[in-house]
C-alpha cells in the first residue's frame, strides 16, 4: 500500500492543479523552464526545459488523459518535428506501467531517435516523500495540512496514527518488526508536536503497541539507533523530528484525515436509503464513525491473531464478532434502522470498514503491528523468503468456489470468502491443490443436491444450506430470477442429471467431470497418500482434536479423508522446499496441527485471502474480507438454523419430499421446531420429532380412502341421531 493515499490524491487532480504539481516536481529535480506554451495556444501543449547541469533541451508533456499511450505518441512526434528535441519527458497523473511504457519508448526510439522518460502519480509521490515536499503537493491539491501541536494522549488515536503510517510507508516481510517500532516512535514524537522528552516517547509508544515493561528496552535501543542514523534529533533527554520528517508526517496525518472524511461520506451514502431525515442521518454517522474505525483495527487484529500459531481460530475471531454485535446494538439504540434491513446495513458497514481507503490502511497497519509480538506462520516466512508455496483446498472451500467460478459469486459469507482467497491465490500465482478424497465428497454433495429439487423454492432459508449447490442456486435465483433456469438445468451445468444419478458408477463419472471443471480454473486434483506411521499420527491428532472440541459425531468416511490429508502433510513436513497451507473452515485441523506441532499452516479462506492481500508488494487493492464474512454469518444466524432443519429433513426423506403432503408437513414442522428452539422447549432429537410429527400430521395414501369412509360414516351416524331426536320430541 506504500504511499498509496498520496497517489490517489494526485490521480484525482484536474489539469491546472496537476500542472502546478508537475512544475513543482521538475523544480525539485533541478530543472529550469526555458519555454512555456499555454494551454490555449492552438495545440502546442508541451513545454521545453533545460537541465542546468548540461543545458540540454528536452520536451515535457503534462497530461491527465486516461489514454496515455495515444497522447504520448502524438505529442512526442510533434515535439520532435517542431522543436527538434530528442529527449522527451511524459508527466502523467495516471499510473504508467513500466513494461507498457517500454513498448512505446522502444517504438519512438527506433522510429524517431527520441528517448522517453516518465513521471507518473506513483513516482511523484515517491519523490515527494524522499525529498520532503509532500505538504506542498497537498496544499496545491487543496488539502489542509495543519501545523503540529501537542495534544492530550489518547491511545486509540495514536494507535490509528501508527497503523495508518505502517500501511502508508509499507514494509518488507523481512523487516516489518523494526519498521513498526520505528513508525510508532515517530508517530509518538509527531503527536507531541515534533519534540518530546525521551521517557515520554517510550511510555506512549509502549502503550500504543501494547508492549510489556520488559520489552521497553527495545524502544530505547531503537531510539538510539535512529538518532545515530540522523532520523531523530535532540539532546539532553529529548528527541525530535527534523524539518523533512515533520513535512512527511504532517502529510501522512492530513491524508489520514482526508480519507477519514471520505469514509464519512461513504457512510452517509450507505445510510441514505434507510434514514431519510438528514439530521438523524448525520447524528447516526457521528455515532458510528469511531466504531467503524475500531472495527477496522479489530479486523486487522483478528487476521493477525488467526495467523498466530499458538492461537485457536475461534478465539482469534471472537473480538471481531463481539465488535460487530456491538455495532448491531448501536444501530438498534439509534433507532433509525428498520430491523428488517439491519443485517444489510451491518454488512455494508463491515464492508466499508475494510474496503475504504481509511479502513484498509488501519487494517493493514494493525496486522503489521500485531505480527511484531507473535510466532508467525510458515506461510509468512515463505512469502518473505520467496519459497514455493502450495495451498490445499478442503471441501467446504472448494465447493462454493466451483459454484462461483462456473456461474457467478453470491453474497453468502462462504462464497465471498472462497472467491476472495481464489483471487488472491491467482494473483500471487500460488498453486492450488484439491485432494481427490475431497473431490469425492463434492461429487457426493452434488448427487445429494438432486433430492432438493422438489423443495428448492419452498423457503429462502435454503440459501444458507450446508449443501453449497443448493445454497448457491437459491441465492442466484433470488438475485436474478429471470436469468436462472430450473434447478435441474443448474445441476446439469456441473454434470449431474437425475437420469444418470442412480447408476452404480454415477459418483465416479461425476468426479471425472468435476475434475475437468477444476482443471479449467487451474486447480489440480491430486491423489494423496500417507505411510503407516504418518497415518497413525494423523489419526491420533484428529482423535485429540475431536475430544478437545467434543465433536465425536464425524462420519467415518470424512475422518478417513481428513486423516489421509493430514498424514500426507506430516510426511512432507520434513521438506523445507515447499510450504503448505490447508485452507479449511474445519476447526479440528488447527488443533490436530498444534498437537502434531506440524510444519504447515491451517487457515480459513477469509484469513488466508486477507494475508495474501496484505502481502502483495505495492498493492493498492488491499482487501480484508473477514469482517464482511463474519457480519454476514451473524446476520444470517436464524436463516442458517432454518436451513439446517431442511438439510436434516432431506437427509432423512431423500426423494420422499416430492410428495406435496409431506412438503406441507415439513414446512409446518420446520416452523414449529424453530419456535420451540427459540423458547428452549425442545426435548427430542430432530429425527425423533419429525417421525412423531408425521404420525400426527401426515395421512398415508393407502389409509386415505379408509379415513374418508370412516368420516362419512360418522357424519351419517350424526345425521341419523338428530333425526331420531326430532322424532322423539314430536
Describe this structure in words.
The chain is α/β, with parallel strands linked by helices. The chain folds into 4 domains: 4-134, Restriction Endonuclease; 155-253, Arc Repressor Mutant, subunit A (Orthogonal Bundle), CATH 1.10.10; 256-372, no CATH class; 388-633, no CATH class. The protein is 64% helix and 8% strand. It contains 31 helices and 12 strands. The strands form 3 sheets. It has a 5-stranded mixed β-sheet, with helices on both faces. It has a 5-stranded parallel β-sheet with strand order 10-9-8-11-12. Helix 29 (660-679) crosses helix 30 (686-697). It is globular and about 115 Å long. The chain starts with a helix and ends with a helix.
Q: What would the keywords be for this entry?
A:
730 residues; 31 helices; 4 domains; single chain; Arc Repressor Mutant, subunit A; 5-stranded parallel β-sheet; globular; 5-stranded mixed β-sheet; Restriction Endonuclease; alpha/beta; Restriction endonuclease type IV Mrr domain-containing protein
Amino acid at each position: 500500500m506504500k504511499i498509496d493515499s498520496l497517489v490517489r490524491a494526485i490521480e484525482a487532480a484536474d489539469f491546472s492543479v496537476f500542472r502546478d504539481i508537475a512544475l513543482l516536481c521538475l523544480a525539485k529535480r533541478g530543472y529550469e523552464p526555458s519555454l512555456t506554451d499555454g494551454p490555449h495556444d492552438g495545440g502546442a501543449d508541451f513545454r521545453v526545459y533545460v537541465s542546468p547541469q548540461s543545458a540540454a533541451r528536452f520536451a515535457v508533456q503534462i497530461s491527465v488523459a486516461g489514454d496515455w499511450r495515444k497522447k504520448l505518441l502524438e505529442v512526442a512526434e510533434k515535439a520532435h518535428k517542431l522543436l527538434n528535441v530528442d529527449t522527451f519527458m511524459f508527466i502523467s497523473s495516471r499510473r504508467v506501467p513500466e513494461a507498457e511504457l517500454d513498448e512505446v519508448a522502444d517504438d519512438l526510439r527506433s522510429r524517431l531517435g527520441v528517448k522517453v522518460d516518465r513521471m507518473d502519480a506513483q513516482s511523484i509521490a515517491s519523490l515527494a516523500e524522499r525529498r520532503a515536499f509532500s505538504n506542498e503537493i497537498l496544499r496545491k491539491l487543496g488539502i489542509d495540512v495543519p501545523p503540529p501541536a501537542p495534544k492530550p494522549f489518547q491511545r486509540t488515536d495514536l494507535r490509528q496514527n501508527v497503523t495508518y503510517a505502517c500501511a502508508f510507508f509499507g514494509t518488507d516481510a523481512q523487516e516489518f518488526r523494526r519498521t513498526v517500532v520505528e513508525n510508532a516512535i515517530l508517530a509518538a514524537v509527531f503527536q507531541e508536536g515534533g519534540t518530546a522528552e525521551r521517557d515520554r516517547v517510550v511510555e506512549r509508544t509502549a502503550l500504543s503497541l501494547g508492549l510489556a515493561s520488559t520489552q521497553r528496552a527495545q524502544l530505547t535501543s531503537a531510539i538510539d539507533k535512529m538518532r545515530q542514523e540522523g532520523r531523530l534529533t535532540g539532546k539532553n533527554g529529548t528527541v525530535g523530528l527534523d524539518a523533512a520528517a515533520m513535512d512527511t508526517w504532517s502529510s501522512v496525518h492530513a491524508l489520514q484525515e482526508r480519507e477519514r472524511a471520505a469514509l464519512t461520506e461513504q457512510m452517509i451514502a450507505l445510510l441514505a436509503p434507510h434514514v431519510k431525515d438528514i439530521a438523524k442521518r448525520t447524528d447516526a454517522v457521528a455515532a458510528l464513525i469511531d466504531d467503524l474505525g475500531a472495527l477496522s483495527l479489530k479486523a486487522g487484529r483478528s487476521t493477525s491473531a488467526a495467523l498466530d500459531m499458538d492461537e485457536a481460530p475461534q478465539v482469534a475471531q471472537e473480538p471481531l464478532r463481539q465488535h460487530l454485535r456491538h455495532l448491531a446494538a448501536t444501530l438498534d439504540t439509534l433507532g433509525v434502522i428498520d430491523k428488517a434491513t439491519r443485517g444489510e446495513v451491518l454488512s455494508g458497514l463491515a464492508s466499508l470498514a475494510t474496503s475504504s481507503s481509511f479502513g484498509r490502511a488501519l487494517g493493514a497497519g494493525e496486522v503489521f503491528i500485531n505480527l511484531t509480538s507473535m510466532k508467525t506462520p510458515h506461510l509468512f516466512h515463505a512469502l518473505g523468503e520467496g519459497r514455493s508455496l502450495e495451498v490445499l483446498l478442503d471441501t467446504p472451500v472448494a465447493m462454493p468456489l466451483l459454484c462461483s467460478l462456473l456461474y457467478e459469486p453470491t453474497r453468502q459469507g462462504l462464497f465471498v470468502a472462497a472467491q476472495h482467497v481464489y483471487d488472491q491465490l491467482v494473483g500471487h500465482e500460488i498453486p492450488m491443490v484439491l485432494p481427490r478424497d475431497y473431490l469425492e465428497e463434492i461429487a457426493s454433495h452434488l448427487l445429494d443436491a438432486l433430492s432438493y429439487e422438489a423443495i428448492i423454492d419452498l423457503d429462502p432459508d435454503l440459501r444458507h444450506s450446508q449443501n453449497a449447490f443448493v445454497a448457491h442456486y437459491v441465492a442466484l435465483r433470488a438475485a436474478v430470477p429471470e436469468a436462472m433456469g430450473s434447478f435441474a438445468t443448474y445441476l446439469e451445468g456441473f454434470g449431474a442429471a437425475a437420469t444418470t444419478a442412480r447408476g452404480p458408477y454415477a459418483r465416479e463419472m461425476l468426479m471425472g467431470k468435476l475434475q475437468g471443471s477444476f482443471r479449467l480454473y487451474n486447480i489440480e486434483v491430486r491423489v494423496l497418500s500417507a505411510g503407516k506411521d504418518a497415518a497413525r499420527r494423523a489419526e491420533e491428532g484428529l482423535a485429540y482434536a475431536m475430544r478437545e472440541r467434543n465433536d465425536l459425531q464425524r462420519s467415518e468416511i470424512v475422518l478417513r479423508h481428513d486423516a489421509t490429508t493430514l498424514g500426507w502433510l506430516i510426511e512432507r513436513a520434513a521438506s523445507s522446499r515447499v510450504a503448505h497451507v490447508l485452507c479449511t473452515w474445519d476447526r479440528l485441523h488447527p488443533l490436530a496441527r498444534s498437537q502434531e506441532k506440524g510444519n504447515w499452516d491451517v487457515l480459513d479462506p477469509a484469513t488466508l485471502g486477507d494475508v495474501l492481500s496484505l502481502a502483495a508488494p505495492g498493492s493498492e487493492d488491499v482487501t480484508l474480507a473477514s469482517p464482511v464474512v463474519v457480519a454476514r454469518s451473524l446476520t444470517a444466524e436464524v436463516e442458517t438454523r432454518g436451513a439446517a432443519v431442511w438439510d436434516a429433513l432431506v437427509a432423512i426423506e431423500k426423494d420422499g419430499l416430492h410428495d406435496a403432503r409431506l412438503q406441507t408437513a415439513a414446512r409446518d414442522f420446520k416452523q414449529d421446531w424453530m419456535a420451540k428452539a427459540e423458547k428452549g422447549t425442545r426435548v427430542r432429537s430432530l429425527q425423533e420429532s419429525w417421525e412423531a410429527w408425521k404420525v400426527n400430521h401426515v395421512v398415508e395414501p393407502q389409509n386415505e380412502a379408509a379415513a374418508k369412509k370412516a368420516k362419512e360414516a360418522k357424519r351419517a351416524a350424526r345425521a341419523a341421531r338428530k333425526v331420531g331426536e326430532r322424532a322423539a320430541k314430536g
